[in-house]
Known about the structure:
Organism: Actinophytocola oryzae
Number of helices: 10
InterPro entries: AmpC-like, Beta-lactam-related, Beta-lactam/transpept-like, DUF7586
Radius of gyration: 26 Å
Oligomer: single chain
Low-confidence stretches: none
Number of strands: 20
Protein name: CubicO group peptidase (Beta-lactamase class C family)
Strand content: 15-25%
Amino acid sequence: MLQTTEFALLRRLAAEQAESRAPSLVAAVVRGGDVLWTGARGEVDGARPTDDTQYRIGSITKTFIAVLVMRLRDEGLLDLNDELDKHLPGTSFGHLTIAQLLSHTGGLTSESPGVWWERAVGGDWPELLGHMDENVLKLRAGARFHYSNVGFGILGQLVAELRGNSWLDVLNTEVLAPLGMSRTTPMPEAPHALGWAVHPYADVLLPEPTPDAGAMAPAGQLWSTVTDLARWLRFMAGDAGTVLHPDTVEEMRAPVAVEDAAAWTSAYGLGFQTWRDGGRRLVGHGGSMPGFLANVVVDPATTTGALALTNSTAGVGVSALSLDILKLVDDYEPAPPAEWRPLTSVSQDLLALTGQWFWGPSPFVLRLSAGGWVELRPAAGGGRGSRFRPTGEHTWVGLDNYYAGETLRLHHHEDGTVSHLDLATFIFTRTPYDPKAPIPGGLDGRGWRPID
Length: 452
């Protein structure tokens, strides 16, 4: 990056470390497939931490669990609307759906019953389940967002049951190894930072325990590095390799429940947090465990992302830091638009469909893009429009906005010529209210005319 950009980033990082009294603090910027900048302040074992120094990432672990669940969904081994009882019978919360657990809308208690799980050695699944009676249900399912660490402990067990292996083994095999994230582990492996609590009124430290959380581990167990989390940011932006289809990643990023209803700046999707900031839609997740704070955030539209990790229990604004880093990069070195390139091949039949269509008297425009994808939007101004991915010779499925999930279907006359488009019963024709098309309600036989 430019020297001015790097200086501004280092200045922001240094100010956070000094003012928040962080034992150590690391940060990075990614864009596309590249790590553009990394920075570090403070010390780990008497030296500057590096891109390979492990920190505990806390609840960022949840994003990995969510990916494992979505892989199961994509393979047809579960449906997000399945009640938990279908796969993990015999619980007091079996009526909750998998989607509700992923989006923290099941109404489950935020923490596991018993002692504070983040600082205590965790038991196994039967032990955790034995403590969870009907009292763990705090709110009506689906009523509102209520963050639940317990919910992701349950999802980790769901993955283990359906795969016949521990969630950690499944994670290593299906996600970490394919993405080359060899330094993301359940327990620390050298070089790694020690977790500290910083005294509120004196510059002294207290070491924090980092026990194995047992059945609660899926909520916050993992340790990782700048290098590995930079790859995870690329994943969240859509570069999912062979692990997930990009459409599934996009589905996970879509807001399901708003966290701050009055302001609507923060929401939760299917295992991913999402934010609205300065007109941008950002995605990522925060993490907090005794001795550690972490945050990852990326703008999928530009693939520019930032991360920050520290080994302090509280007081270090890693979320604000990562957002500020993102803003600095956008201000100093904004991402250029993707280079336009013409299509390398095109179906003449699809090309003939482009241009103006009418829903009643309202003009819409259909555009063609790579892979046979089409976009149908109002010709002018706002309104209902979506992108569509081909699902058959003459069908497409909506990917976003009003028509997400709906089928766009092309119809022909008996002689083979194009008749109309049918989109969720809305008929689109080449001319307004084409009398040759099956317009719902029929048409006045006298056609278009002036007022009598």
